[in-house]
Amino acid sequence: QVQLVESGGGLVQAGGSLRLSCAASGRTFSSYAMGWFRQAPGKEREFVAAISWNDAYLYYGDSVKGRFTISRDNAKNTVYMQMNSLKPEDTAVYYCAADVSMPSERRYSRRYYDGTRYDYWGQGTQVTVSS
Predict the structure, then answer these.
(1) What is the dihedral of CA 78, 75, 114, 21, to 10 degrees?
(2) pLDDT tens across 4-32, in order?
């Protein structure tokens, strides 16, 4: 069973920055596609960012493009998301997700955006951006 643990959330003022981390337990983490999703109160889950196992492909939701950066360190079994220029509308619980069998190929791009295709999820970390 793959375990994912998010950390790095907290309270920050608008315009500030946070870096989220997601640590995975699997020894085959290097082969996982990883994604970040978020869910704000009263709203549906929203895609934020994703990264292929070999960094060949990066994907971002339109609302965070240019402000957030996803990265990974396979040697540490960890995926990161640097969040800059935070806005109150970024307030949400942020979830890390893993897909253990997604090839790093262009034709699979649509799958990265679809939360239902991910196999494992963390418990989430709260990000609150004050105005």
Answers:
(1) 10
(2) 999 999 999 999 999 999 999 877 888 89
